[in-house]
Amino acid sequence: MSKSKENKKSKKKINSRAKGARGEREVAQLLRSYGYEARRGQQYSGSPDSPDVISSLEGFHIEVKRVEQFNLYKALEQCEKDRGDGEKSLIFHKKNGKPWTICMDANEFLQLIESLINEGI
After folding, report:
1. What CATH number corresponds to the domain at position 71?
2. Which domain holds residue 68?
3. Model pTM?
4. pLDDT tens digits, 56-90
């Protein structure tokens, strides 16, 4: 592989990493704007101690995907593998020029809604 191709690949990886870190800061800020404590995680690879964002939103393992090409099932699998016991997977996703969205397992979402209804909220 030529040096120019290697440099482009390396630059793309650095830009991708920077975009991911920026996305994590954006999600932390979004959560803080709703009154939750939130900050970027320690970024250790793949454990319950290393969500992308650590927050006071208890019971959720948060992963952030700030990418144009989003692979939902790959993201869910990563989050499920990394989350702690009893945590639900919560994936924040954003494309350029679009608002943040949240993805989670449908059964976990419906259980959450059922709990809220049972609590009279």
Report:
1. 3.40.1350.10
2. 3-118
3. 0.81
4. 999 999 999 999 999 999 999 999 999 989 999 99
